[in-house]
Amino acid sequence: MKPIVAGVAGVAGTVLLAGTLFVGAAISDKILGDAESKEAAEQTKIPTTAAAQSVVYAPPSIEEVPDGPMKEAILYGYELVNNTHVAAEEYVGNQLSCTSCHAGAGYDEQVSSLVGVMADYPQYIARSGDIVTIEERINGCMVRSMNGKKFDMNSKELEAMVSYFAYISEGVPIGAEREWVGTSTMKDIPIPDVKNGEEVYAQSCIACHAADGSGNGANTGPALWGEKSFNDGAGMARMSKMAGYIKHNMPVGAAGTLTDQDAADLAAFILSQDRPEWANHNKDWPKGGRPNDIMNKEKREQVKNNTIDWEKVLSTN
Question: Rounded to two decimals, what is the model's pTM?
């Protein structure tokens, strides 16, 4: 199976670094020397007629980063995204990387691509109940998908990741329609059969993710549950996100061959296993609209006790 994780829901693009419409509002002053305030960034990046444009998938190669003051930061950002649990070990609380969900460090056109992601931020996110910058979105993934801690806002790590995202967003103006960014959310989820999900997992997933869900590597078969995996505050801890990701991306080499039922069954089995707990569930969706399909500890226990009401869980996704 291909890497499954969250990430940055949930959660996955640009203009030339030398003349972009948005980089100045997103990269800190340490890199560009002229960062704007959050308020200015929000105003600057309001989508314009670019929203009606359609752009082609043509990210610049990581092998051809031009020489100059940005090169070191871009390459470091690539390493942080591709091997997060190693390159940013002190910030990561599990054995995952951004690539665990966003294949090829976000370059893979088919699997939660991050190409052009800079064109989406700042953006309102209901889970936060606020307008979120790219830096804040990265940190959200660090504490949820990586089950770790946030980067300091002026840290070299955060600046490098933003520099990398800006680089692979080259040529994508604010609000542009990126046809390669599909949704991995399953809107109409069949009532799952957890037992069947366990059987499908044993047939199709163990080789990469291990019988106990601990995986065999962040970018080759990431941990799907247990202490090495994402916590239940991550986007992938929702049935709609996990089932959709499985349906669209699994198994490796045969993506899309699973039925909706099998994808739902697998998601239910995976998300019913123990995993790190998110401490701030009560602070999410402060303005209402909390989805029912978040598989927290209470719902995991209900699955084990065979008392879960799947119709209720899947009623509003």
Answer: 0.82
Cβ pair 120, 253 in contact under 8 A = no
In sequence order, the 6+-apart residues with CB closer than 8 A to the CB of 106 are 12, 81, 98, 99, 112, 113, 114, 115, 117, 165, 168
Strand partners, 177: 54
pLDDT of residue 53: 67
- Greater confidence, 296 or 29? 296
Q: Which residues pair with 132 in a beta bridge?
A: 123
User: Does the pLDDT at position 250 exceed 90?
Assistant: yes
**What's the average model confidence in pLDDT over 313-317?**
84
Do 113 and 97 form a contact (C-beta atoms < 8 A)?
no
E strands present in the chain: 54-55, 123-125, 130-132, 177-178
Q: Return all residues near 278 (Cβ < 8 A) that are at least 6 apart.
A: 144, 231, 232, 233, 234, 237, 296
Cα–Cα dist 251/207, whole Å: 11
Burial track 89-100 (b if 16+ CB lie within 10 A, e otherwise): eebbbbbbbbbb
pLDDT in tens, 132-167: 999 999 999 999 999 999 999 999 999 999 999 999
Q: Both tokens of residue 89?
A: 């070990």
